[in-house]
């Protein structure tokens, strides 16, 4: 219960922060912003001073800021995100379109990273200091030092430009997933593997792990019945935190490979100063983090009844 | 008691990291001193030309010397990153200690704020701040500071809480020592190594962020030499001049690898 | 017939020999106790016999169990014995149960996977055994919901579920109070009656006395003395065994209280303390006088440390008053901790820490030298860091540090519970001397009622919290249940 309350508070503060940041962004739009927004909405040929003035009034770009701020936050908490300044479509509808594409990419990346990282990490953690452990440390350190955009760049150069195996960009077919999902997953897996390794090494060093073997269970039985369960909790908690890293990666990777998702839209919105879109997407991502972590909290509490975490 | 052994760092990994960073720094600072030149001077005649004494790394698509552009880029983002880490580190240290010492509402408010910031992708915050602040470099500095202080705050607060509750700090108070002494002898020795690790990671995060946003064309603007921007500019010429593209790629990797090794652990 | 015989067991760490060739035999129905202080090699010897030594150490010698003969260096061969021939009892039962699994399945899995019972039968068997141990409700609980004593019984059931007839217990009473210690002894003896073998490794004379059988005293990896336990303990032959027995609080002479009571240093009236929403101390009244030692006892978790924090002004009482004598500096109230290593700044040299304290209290630097001599400490220790000094020496340095602040009252929170008996006697002796010569008021917390009885002028015993009554006194019931 307390878990959910604290997550709820977190969600509220996230909304407040996003609201304040986007309000500040709105107020600091350069002088011709209204004109540009109007141009974006009605086309350059149809813009006149009246249309720009209408936009200015609609957005409350002048006038006392406190009243405008309260109005802004009021709209936010009524979940009224307004319309995109660029397309004129409701922000909710735009995000609805893009969210699916991003979710699939994110899920593919997380799934892939979980297949690669934790098994290797657990294997290394079972024998800390072994050759395999040290090799994994070197590889994961090197992988961690490669930012996701650079990973995407390298994969594009090798797999699509040089070898021609995969399309460099595009969306719609399963093979379009492979490159961006790998670009995201390798970095995540490098860190997953370290977390799993440290957790496993910690569990192996615990007295209960020895005692389970002294009871007569085989190594495999002990790992299966006592090892994995205890490793899963820190790993899960970490996955929740990794969500932010994943989202950042999605934003960048989508922009690189032209993936029609929320990250791509966000970068465009920032570029075009489409503040309502920025607000909508930022809120969506922030609340997504809170929701994922609330679910993970509940799951972890089920596995680990000790609470007090 | 069973000691949990978690060998975190590569043996000699930190030394290796520091050595890599030293090489990168020497190049960035002294490269243009040894081979004088202008990172902005164009000469379309030399577009994508190979190395020559005046431009040891060759030329980019606009005929600008890659040696000088790279040296410039390797000063720019690390400088912004270090400034942001210094600001964030100081803020995190002060606020974290304050939260642990005062407790109550001060602590609760700071924790709630930090948790909310944690939920927002750092790059997104940086992008928004960039849209608000007038200059790109100052925008990056402010945005990255805003993102990075949370980690320092959390580390400091957790360590300070544990240390202040320890028998050693309690003994210090019973013996009549003041807070400055307790901070100096009990807190700082525990916090300092964590701060070094966090600072190395923070610097790497900041450099990655600047490069990533440059790469998707929403960060530094041309013609500023910046690592991500250089890569995206040279990407179309991969077939003609692979080395031109690899130069910023390898430099970025070296910089980030050096920082990761120097950190000698991983984020918790 | 011997159940187990170990011949010429040695343990080496590189070139250093930690256990000299030691041989021992275990007969059915006759327990064997290996007694020794920390660092005597007693646990290493046991681990070599069980095949559980850390990988960095090397063992030689032969072990015969049941029908088979094993070489001590061939650790893999011992695996097959665990659970089936030898039941290994862990040192800290609480940490030895999987925190994420209920107690029942942790016993049942050994019945199923080791003894080969079908799942349902294994579950029933586990439930029966736990019920027989007085743990009807424990099967569905997680380890953190069990008390230390309950966890110990679950661990015993789990260790023996595989059908092992030989029980090896390494320090089974570590950190337990006297009542629990007797409980454990009863459980171990109950395990012995039918199935035969029991090997107990301990530093605890009282446990050795209760287990009986044969005794082997170990020091620096070599056997000092062997014989029937009762005979060795009543008439020790070796000088070391005599010292060991003399250091046991049972053999201490009672301290003579100072004839006239000093003036009151601290008074607590109707003290009520809570921590984390739990009522710990209810309406306690006590008085501390110069030169007197007040003993504080009670089971773990009953609020002894919280009482100390309140007396020292670190915890605000929920109700009641604490009055300090007029004219005393706030720093006249000092404390000794159970774990002295944690009570010093980790990275600072001890001499530096002590000089800081001396400077703060305007004590001349010679004062440190004088106190070093009084507390029989070597000044070479001052150049070391806390972790590089033995527990006994560090606890005396902590006492020295407190003395630099000119205390009138010292709250000593289990100051010797992690020390060996001989060192314990020395530290407690110094503390009592200080009370007498310097007129200190001392509150001494210990879980050992005998120690409190020998040293203290008055005793304050804190009651157990509600809901913690789990110590089974009915050892007869246990004996029949397990056997």
From TrEMBL, chain A:
Residues 99-300 form the ABC transmembrane type-1 domain. It is a multi-pass membrane protein. GO terms for molecular function: dipeptide transmembrane transporter activity. It is found in: Cell membrane. Keywords: Cell membrane, Membrane, Transmembrane, Transmembrane helix, Transport. InterPro entries: BPD_transp_1_N, MetI-like, MetI-like_sf. The chain crosses the membrane at residues 103-124, 145-165, 177-196, 235-262, 282-301. GO terms for cellular component: plasma membrane. Belongs to the binding-protein-dependent transport system permease family. This is Peptide/nickel transport system permease protein.
Automatic annotation (TrEMBL), chain B:
GO terms for cellular component: plasma membrane. PROSITE patterns: ABC_TM1 (PS50928). GO terms for molecular function: dipeptide transmembrane transporter activity. It is a multi-pass membrane protein. Keywords: Cell membrane, Membrane, Peptide transport, Protein transport, Transmembrane, Transmembrane helix, Transport. It is found in: Cell membrane. InterPro entries: BP-dependent_transpt_permease, MetI-like, MetI-like_sf. GO terms for biological process: protein transport. It comes from the Bacteria. The keyword Zinc does not apply. Pfam families: BPD_transp_1. Residues 74-263 form the ABC transmembrane type-1 domain. The chain crosses the membrane at residues 12-35, 79-101, 110-133, 139-156, 194-221, 241-263. Belongs to the binding-protein-dependent transport system permease family. PANTHER family: D,D-DIPEPTIDE TRANSPORT SYSTEM PERMEASE PROTEIN DDPC-RELATED, OLIGOPEPTIDE TRANSPORT SYSTEM PERMEASE PROTEIN APPC. This is Peptide/nickel transport system permease protein. It comes from Rhodovulum steppense.
Automatic annotation (TrEMBL), chain C:
Residues 4-245, 266-482 form the ABC transporter domain. PROSITE patterns: ABC_TRANSPORTER_1 (PS00211), ABC_TRANSPORTER_2 (PS50893), SIGMA54_INTERACT_1 (PS00675). The keyword Nucleotide-binding applies. SMART domains: AAA (SM00382). InterPro entries: AAA+_ATPase, ABC_Ni/Peptide_Import, ABC_transporter-like_ATP-bd, ABC_transporter-like_CS, P-loop_NTPase, Sigma_54_int_dom_ATP-bd_1. Transmembrane segments: none annotated. Keywords: ATP-binding, Cell membrane, Membrane, Nucleotide-binding, Transport. GO terms for cellular component: plasma membrane. It is a peripheral membrane protein. One of its GO terms (molecular function) is ATP binding. Pfam families: ABC_tran (PF00005). It is found in: Cell inner membrane. Belongs to the ABC transporter superfamily. This is Peptide/nickel transport system ATP-binding protein. It comes from Rhodovulum steppense.
């Amino acid at each position: 219960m307390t878990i959910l309350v604290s997550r709820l508070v977190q969600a509220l503060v996230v909304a407040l922060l996003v609201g304040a940041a986007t309000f500040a962004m709105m107020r600091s739009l350069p002088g011709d912003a209204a004109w540009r927004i109007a141009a974006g909405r009605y086309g350059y040929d149809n813009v006149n001073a009246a249309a720009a003035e209408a936009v200015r009034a609609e957005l409350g770009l002048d006038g006392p800021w406190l009243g405008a701020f309260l109005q802004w936050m009021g709209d936010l908490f009524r979940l009224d995100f307004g319309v995109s300044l660029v397309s004129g479509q409701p922000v909710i509808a735009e995000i609805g379109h893009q969210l699916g594409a991003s979710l699939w990419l994110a899920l593919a990346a997380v799934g892939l990273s979980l297949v690669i990282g934790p098994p290797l990490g657990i294997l290394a953690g079972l024998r800390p200091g072994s050759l395999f452990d040290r090799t994994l440390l070197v590889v994961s350190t090197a992988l961690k030092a490669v930012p996701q955009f650079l990973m995407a760049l390298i994969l594009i150069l090798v797999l699509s430009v040089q070898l021609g195996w995969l399309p460099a960009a595009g969306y719609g077919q399963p093979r379009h997933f492979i490159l961006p999902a790998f670009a995201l997953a390798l970095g995540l897996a490098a860190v997953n593997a370290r977390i799993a390794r440290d957790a496993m090494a910690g569990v192996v060093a615990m007295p209960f792990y020895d005692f389970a073997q002294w009871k007569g269970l085989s190594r495999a039985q002990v790992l299966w019945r006592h090892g994995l369960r205890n490793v899963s909790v820190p790993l899960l908690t970490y996955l929740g935190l990794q969500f932010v890293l994943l989202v950042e990666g999605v934003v960048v990777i989508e922009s690189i490979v032209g993936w029609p998702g929320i990250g791509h839209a966000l970068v465009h919105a920032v570029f075009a100063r489409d503040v309502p879109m920025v607000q909508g997407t930022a809120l969506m991502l922030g609340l997504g983090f809170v929701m994922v972590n609330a679910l993970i909290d509940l799951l972890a509490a089920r596995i680990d009844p000790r609470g007090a975490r | 008691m069973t000691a949990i052994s978690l060998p975190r760092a590569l043996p000699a990994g930190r030394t290796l990291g520091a050595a890599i960073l030293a090489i990168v720094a020497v190049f960035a600072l002294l490269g243009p001193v040894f081979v004088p030149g202008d990172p902005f001077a164009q000469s379309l005649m030399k577009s994508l030309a190979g190395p020559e004494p005046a431009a040891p790394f060759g030329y980019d698509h606009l005929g600008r010397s890659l040696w000088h552009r790279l040296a410039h880029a390797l000063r720019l983002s690390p400088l912004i990153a270090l400034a942001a880490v210094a600001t964030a580190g100081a803020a995190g240290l002060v606020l974290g200690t304050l939260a642990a010492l005062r407790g109550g509402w001060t602590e609760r408010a700071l924790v709630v704020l930090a948790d909310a910031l944690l939920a927002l992708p750092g790059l997104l915050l940086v992008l928004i701040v960039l849209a608000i602040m007038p200059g790109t470099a100052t925008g990056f500095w402010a945005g990255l500071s805003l993102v990075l202080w949370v980690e320092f705050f959390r580390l400091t607060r957790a360590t300070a809480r544990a240390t202040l509750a320890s028998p050693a700090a309690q003994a210090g108070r019973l013996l009549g020592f003041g807070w400055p002494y307790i901070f100096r002898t009990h807190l700082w020795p525990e916090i300092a190594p964590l701060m070094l690790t966090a600072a190395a990671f923070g610097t790497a995060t900041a450099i990655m962020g600047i490069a990533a946003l440059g790469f998707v064309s929403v960060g530094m603007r041309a013609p500023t030499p910046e690592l991500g921007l250089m890569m995206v500019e040279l990407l179309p010429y991969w077939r003609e001049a692979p080395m031109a593209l690899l130069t910023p790629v390898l430099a970025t990797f070296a910089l980030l690898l050096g920082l990761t090794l120097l950190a000698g652990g991983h984020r918790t | 017939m011997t159940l187990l015989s170990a011949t010429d067991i040695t343990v080496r760490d590189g070139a250093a020999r930690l256990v000299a060739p030691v041989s021992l035999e275990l007969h059915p129905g006759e327990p064997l106790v290996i007694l020794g202080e920390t660092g005597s090699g007693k646990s290493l010897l046991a681990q070599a016999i069980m095949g559980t030594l850390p990988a960095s150490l090397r063992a030689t010698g032969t072990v015969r169990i049941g029908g088979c003969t094993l070489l001590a260096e061939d650790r893999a061969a011992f695996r097959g014995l665990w659970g089936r021939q030898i039941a290994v009892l862990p040192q800290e039962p609480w940490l030895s149960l999987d925190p994420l699994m209920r107690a029942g399945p942790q016993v049942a899995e050994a019945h199923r996977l080791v003894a080969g019972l079908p799942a349902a039968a294994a579950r029933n068997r586990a439930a029966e055994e736990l019920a027989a141990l007085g743990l009807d409700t424990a099967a569905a609980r997680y380890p953190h919901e069990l008390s230390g004593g309950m966890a110990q019984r679950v661990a015993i059931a789990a260790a023996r579920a595989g059908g092992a007839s030989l029980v090896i217990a390494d320090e089974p009473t570590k950190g337990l109070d006297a009542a629990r210690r007797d409980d454990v002894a009863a459980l171990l003896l109950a395990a012995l009656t039918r199935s035969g073998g029991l090997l107990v490794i301990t530093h605890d004379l009282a446990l050795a006395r209760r287990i009986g059988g044969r005794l082997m005293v170990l020091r620096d990896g070599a056997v000092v003395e062997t014989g029937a336990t009762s005979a060795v303990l009543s008439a020790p032959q070796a000088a070391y065994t005599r010292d060991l027995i003399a250091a046991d609080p049972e053999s201490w002479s009672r301290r003579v209280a100072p004839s006239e009571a000093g003036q009151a240093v601290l008074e607590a009236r109707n003290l009520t303390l809570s921590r984390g929403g739990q009522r710990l101390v209810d309406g306690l009244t006590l008085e501390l006088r110069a030169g007197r030692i007040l003993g504080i006892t009670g089971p773990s978790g009953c609020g002894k440390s919280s009482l100390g924090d309140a007396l020292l002004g670190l915890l605000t009482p929920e109700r009641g008053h604490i009055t300090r004598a007029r004219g005393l500096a706030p720093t006249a109230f000092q404390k000794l901790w159970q774990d002295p290593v944690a009570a010093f700044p980790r990275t600072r040299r001890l001499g530096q820490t002590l000089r800081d304290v001396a400077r703060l209290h305007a004590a001349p630097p010679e004062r440190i030298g004088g106190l070093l001599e009084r507390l029989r400490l070597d000044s070479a220790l001052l150049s070391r860091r806390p972790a590089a000094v033995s527990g006994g020496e560090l606890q005396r340095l902590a006492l020295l540090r407190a003395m630099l602040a000119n205390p009138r009252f010292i709250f000593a929170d289990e100051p010797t519970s992690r020390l060996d008996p001989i060192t314990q006697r020395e530290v407690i002796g110094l503390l009592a001397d200080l009370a007498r010569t310097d007129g200190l008021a001392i509150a001494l917390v210990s879980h050992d009622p005998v120690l409190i009885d020998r040293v203290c002028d008055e005793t304050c015993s804190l009651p157990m919290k509600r809901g913690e009554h789990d110590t089974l006194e009915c050892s007869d019931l246990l004996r029949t249940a397990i056997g």
